[in-house]
């Protein structure tokens, strides 16, 4: 009994010592070899299960595809703001945003008493001009025989010329509000005028209502001629060198990605935004009525073909927003190396790395298995 008790005490002390030792070891900081966190190590069985295969990078001809986005825009010459040069009250209009209009079509009817006054001044002035012209001719005849003084002749001429200027000015004002002076007579004086559309297009905005008075600076309607719409794309500074005037591209919308539109680059912006982008303007080769200004569009541009180092897509893995490949080192060891990828064509991806990969062995199959091995190692 006494021997059993001693045995129990011995094993208890031994367990306590082992427990303390294990705790100290677990609390001690873990150490690793430099770069061990980027080194995956597998045994022969694991290599076989992961189907690890090696290969060398290949030089291939790749044509880079630049993906861009932007929106449909309208050049300033195709946007028309409609106003009334002399102001007035809006009598009638049928326009709503989106209404299609034709050139010469009546957009609205305005009325104001100043229109009446302007027509009255013109007709009255025109009648007086006839009188002054006759008086001037008469004074010229009288002055030939010195029956009239030069002063009277000069005065008659000055009044006649001044009246001509005034009549010409009134004709321009009448034309400005859409009244033809040549067809105006005392029986045709009107208190209203018509506002006509100067283009074919549609109404983008209506800023007035019936009965409202508008001044000459107020915009009643805005019209858009969509026949010359273009595509404004945002291009980053680093990609501008690959774009040139006359280059073809394919555009499509998010709502109808299967419907493609051919465009041509017509202008490359020279000013960079704070985001380091410039605007590239493209012209649609064929006008499509379904394309509405302001619509967001995507586009792809085929850049010039070049030779580049490529690897199969399976050789490149992504982790924490970076891309990597695995290079074999010692037996069963693979180093994870950061790279940058470019264009992908026919299952091969263009890559660039800090170290020269020409002729080097690279893991072309099983790269994701190696990445998972490293992640599990780091979690342990």
Automatic annotation (TrEMBL):
Domain of life: Bacteria
Alphabetical list of NCBIfam families matching this protein: RND_mfp (TIGR01730)
PANTHER family assigned to the protein according to its UniProt record, in alphabetical order: CATION EFFLUX SYSTEM PROTEIN CUSB, SLR6042 PROTEIN
Keywords: Transport
Keyword Transport listed: yes
Residue ranges occupied by any CzcB-like barrel-sandwich hybrid domain in the UniProt entry: 79-223
Entry's Gene Ontology molecular function annotations: transmembrane transporter activity
Family the entry assigns: Belongs to the membrane fusion protein (MFP) (TC 8.A.1) family.
Keyword Signal assigned: no
GO biological process assignments: copper ion export; plasma membrane copper ion transport
Protein name: Efflux RND transporter periplasmic adaptor subunit
One Pfam match: BSH_CzcB
Organism listed in the record: Dyadobacter pollutisoli
PROSITE patterns: PROKAR_LIPOPROTEIN
GO cellular component: cell envelope; membrane
